[in-house]
Design brief:
Blueprint: H1 6-9, E1 24-27, H2 44-56, E2 61-63, H3 71-83, E3 90-96, H4 99-112, E4 117-123, H5 126-132, H6 136-152, E5 157-162, H7 169-181, E6 186-191, H8 198-215, E7 220-225, H9 232-242, E8 246-249, H10 263-272, H11 283-293, E9 311-312, H12 315-326, H13 330-335, E10 350-351, H14 359-368, H15 375-386, H16 394-402
Parallel strand pairs: 1-2, 1-8, 2-3, 3-4, 4-5, 5-6, 6-7, 7-8, 9-10
Helix pairs in contact: 2-3, 2-11, 3-4, 4-6, 6-7, 7-8, 8-9, 12-14, 15-16
Length: 403
């Protein structure tokens, strides 16, 4: 009998037609990520390493900070931009829609020689306007003047409307039109407060896409989402489906409040959906080092890259994985109890022993530890496991087996 293929054994209900464009990615780890209340500002050498890892996993652009924030910020941003002049990944920086914020960006571009993209942002929702006592006419004028200054300085710009997902359509029309008229080549739709659902994303991106087509301009559409309702990743995928051409995210979703779209998980999903063709062997390193350098914990149950992601001690589950391994098919073992193929991301399936384990688990762990799996040894390990409040370590399994 001919050996089956994965597609012969897995019926896939997913329907993910590939977009007509190549999805671009903008990394926010070193800007929005540093706005996390728990984050540490990494050393410059650590930021350099992260930038190279971003390039290695196929990220196109990276927000390297706010040049108007401080002298230290400008020094780091200039050094990073200078480093990126010989790299495929290109830098952008965040600025308020005021010339005094954009001038430091122009200085950085001049000092580094890099094509620094200015991400000029302004709040757009009525609630923000009311809180700030802003008049729309003033907002439109500020937006136009800021983008026009960047254009005059030879800086590519992306115009960013904060809180877009709670903004009035006519306000967005006025702001985007002013920015595009002033030379902005990209516009960014933001779910700043993590408010929107996927249906809202589709409606909003469609509205923005129609506006761009109505204006008859070649302008890219970005999506910047937060995950206050836990919908960051789902909303990002909905944005791509609706026509957003560049998606923002950060390592592990690090960012303001509860954070952003998880760049690593976004890449995992784009790869599995066939929307991304790059090499993701360094994706786990990117995620773990980002957490380390920002001094944030890496949860054991984090999808794909957490310590628990591909480990099971449950008897029925482990038995299926072990049987698959014994058939000599690594792909079968990788998929029989996992929706994500561990091997595709530099990981592997692991069998362990705990309170819900069976004989198969014990035999597997003992044999892979070089210990004879006699019936007495198996019984001793199972007795220890059933009386334990947690999963046993390999050394504990071996110790129990030897009595």
């Amino acid at each position: 009998m001919k050996d089956p293929r994965p597609e012969d054994l897995i019926f896939d209900w997913n329907d993910d037609p590939k977009p007509a464009f190549n999805v671009q990615l903008d990394d926010e780890t070193l800007r929005d990520g540093l706005q996390s209340p728990s984050a540490r500002d990494p050393e410059l050498s650590e930021k350099m390493e992260l930038i190279h890892l971003m390039e290695d996993i196929g990220i196109h652009t990276a927000d390297v900070g706010l040049p108007g924030a401080s002298e230290k910020a400008r020094e780091h941003i200039t050094a990073l931009c200078r480093e990126m002049t010989d790299m495929k990944i290109t830098p952008n920086v965040a600025c308020r829609t005021v010339i005094s914020d954009i001038q430091p960006a122009a200085d950085v571009a001049q000092a580094s020689g890099a094509p620094v993209e200015v991400c000029a942002f302004i709040g757009s929702s009525a609630i923000r306007q009311y809180a700030e006592s802003w008049e729309l006419s003033r907002m439109v004028r500020m937006s136009h003047d800021a983008v026009a200054f960047a254009t005059k300085e030879g800086l590519p710009s992306m115009f960013v409307t904060e809180d877009t997902t709670r903004a009035n359509p006519e306000t967005l029309r006025a702001l985007y039109t002013a920015a595009i008229d002033a030379g902005s080549k990209r516009i960014c739709v933001c779910d700043t407060c993590g408010h929107v659902t996927p249906s809202g994303v589709r409606r909003l991106i469609s509205f923005v896409k129609d506006l761009v087509e109505e204006l008859g301009v070649d302008v890219g559409i970005d999506w910047h989402g937060h995950r206050d309702r836990g919908l960051g990743l789902a909303n990002a995928l909905a944005a791509i489906e609706a026509g957003a051409t560049r998606i923002h995210g950060s390592a592990m979703g690090i960012g303001e409040r509860t954070g952003n779209v998880e760049m690593d998980l976004l890449l995992v999903n784009l790869k599995l959906m066939g929307w991304f063709e790059g090499d993701l062997k360094k994706l786990r390193e990117y995620a773990i080092k980002s957490a380390e350098y920002l001094d944030l914990p890496f949860p054991s149950n984090y999808p794909v890259f957490g310590g628990d992601a591909f480990e099971t001690s449950t008897g029925v589950h482990a038995a299926a994985v072990i049987k698959a391994y014994k058939k000599g098919d690594d792909w079968l073992a990788d998929l029989v109890y996992s929706g994500v193929p561990a091997g595709a991301f530099g990981m592997q399936q692991n069998i362990s022993v705990g309170p819900m384990s069976g004989k198969s688990n014990v035999i597997w762990v003992l044999e892979h530890s070089g210990v004879e799996a006699s019936q007495d040894a198996i019984d001793r390990v199972l007795d220890a496991a059933k009386n334990s409040p947690r999963q046993l370590t390999t050394s504990e399994v071996v110790s129990a087996a030897k009595g």
